[in-house]
Structure formats: structure tokens, C-alpha cells
């Protein structure tokens, strides 16, 4: 089963959307516009970036990686709010204000490589590469799309684009689905760390 990498919260999230507003917890509506500084940065990063040669087939569907657009953020925000996925990833979900504040903090990071995962035209998750001295990868696939091989295929495609090596990834020791994703993509376990949880450190040489 595909699941989110445990320490995905180390990975800066996608840009805040142009004209997209605050999610209302009760109604699911969007009411307050995101700050202009976030919106302008989002516009600058919204150019599509498909895989070389287009998408790839995964279980009869087409998977494409592209740069994150402003319209992606509400979907990705809801993904990280899913309590089951967050618990599996040992991740503290952010509310809308914290999510937007996080975007403001990371928007000028030139070291960030961020992609949205699109399957048959639907945004299903995201992944990226981050870190200054030691590069790491992280990804998140919405729970509704687990078990379809999407995380493995997306990460494999992303590793063809990101040629830096070595790469690290951290996963909660209890998150066996994400551990298998990393192993299928060539990562090997190199260490275990105990913080608030036990983490497995994977490395791709």
C-alpha cells in the first residue's frame, strides 16, 4: 500500500493559490483570500513542467509530474489534514493559517524542487527534493489513491529528473507502505533514529 513518507513536513509545501481563500471547517468553502505576497510568488512558479516525453502509464492510467500551481494548494492542504494519513506519517497537520505561513517562509528557497502528481488529470499528491547540504526527498499521496502504485511510479519518475546523489529519505518505522516505496526505488536502510518516534533513514547512492 502506498502511503506518505513520514517526514514529509520537512518538505516545503506547494505555493499558495491565486484567489483561493481560507477553507471553512464546517462548510468546506474558501472565504478569505491568501496574502498577495504568496499569490504573486505562486504565479511565478505556475508554469507546467511535464515529464520528458509526457506522462507514463501506471495500471492503465496516465501519471504526470508538473510544477505545483496555485490551484493545487486546496487539494494538497486537504491531503495533509487527513487524520489517518497524518498518523501514519507521524505528521502534525497544519491549519490553513499555518499552511499559508509555511508557504511564506519557504517561497524564496532556491534549493527546492517541487512537483505535483497528476493522474488522469486529477491532482493526487506531491513530492519534492529539499535540503542545502544533505539533499532529501519526500512525498505525499492522498489516502484515496493509496494501493495503486502511484507513489512508487511518481518517485521513480522524479528520481530520473533529480540526478543529485546521494539522496536521503526518512520514514516512520511503522509506515511499512512508504518503506516499500523507497526500497522499490533503490533506497537502502542506513540508520534508525529515535526522536519523538522511531524513524528509518534511507539512502540512494
Describe the structure.
With 205 residues, this protein is an alpha+beta fold. The protein has one domain (8-160): Gcn5-related N-acetyltransferase (GNAT) (Aminopeptidase), CATH 3.40.630. Helices cover 28% and strands 28% of the residues. It is built from six helices and ten strands. The protein has helices spanning 36-44, 73-81, 83-89, 96-106, 150-161, 176-184; strands at 21-23, 30-33, 56-58, 61-66, 113-119, 122-130, 136-141, 167-172, 188-194, 198-204. The strands form three sheets. The protein has a five-stranded antiparallel beta sheet, with helices on both faces. Strands 8-10-9 form a three-stranded antiparallel beta sheet, covered by helices on one side. A hairpin with a 2-residue loop joins strand 5 (113-119) and strand 6. The longest helix has 12 residues, at 150-161. The protein starts with 20 loop residues before the first strand and ends with a strand. The model is unreliable at 8-53 (pLDDT under 50).
Amino acid at each position: 500500500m502506498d502511503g506518505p513518507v513520514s517526514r514529509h513536513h520537512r518538505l516545503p509545501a506547494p505555493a499558495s493559490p491565486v484567489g483561493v481563500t481560507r477553507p471553512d471547517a464546517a462548510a468546506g468553502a474558501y472565504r478569505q483570500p491568501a496574502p498577495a505576497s504568496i499569490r504573486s510568488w505562486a504565479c511565478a512558479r505556475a508554469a507546467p513542467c511535464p515529464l520528458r516525453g509526457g506522462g507514463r502509464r501506471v495500471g492503465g492510467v496516465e501519471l504526470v509530474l508538473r510544477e505545483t500551481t496555485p490551484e493545487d494548494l486546496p487539494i494538497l492542504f486537504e491531503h495533509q489534514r487527513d487524520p489517518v494519513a497524518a498518523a501514519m506519517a507521524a505528521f502534525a497537520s497544519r491549519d490553513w493559517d499555518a499552511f499559508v505561513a509555511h508557504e511564506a517562509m519557504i517561497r524564496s528557497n532556491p534549493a527546492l524542487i517541487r512537483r505535483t502528481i497528476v493522474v488522469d488529470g486529477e491532482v493526487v499528491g506531491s513530492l519534492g527534493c529539499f535540503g542545502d547540504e544533505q539533499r532529501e526527498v519526500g512525498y505525499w499521496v492522498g489516502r484515496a489513491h493509496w494501493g495503486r502504485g502511484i507513489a512508487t511510479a511518481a518517485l521513480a519518475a522524479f528520481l530520473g529528473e533529480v540526478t543529485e546523489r546521494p539522496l536521503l529519505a526518512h520514514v516512520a518505522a511503522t509506515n511499512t507502505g512508504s518503506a516499500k516505496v523507497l526500497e522499490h526505488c533503490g533506497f537502502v536502510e542506513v540508520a534508525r533514529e529515535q526522536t519523538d518516534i522511531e524513524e528509518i533513514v534511507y539512502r540512494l547512492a
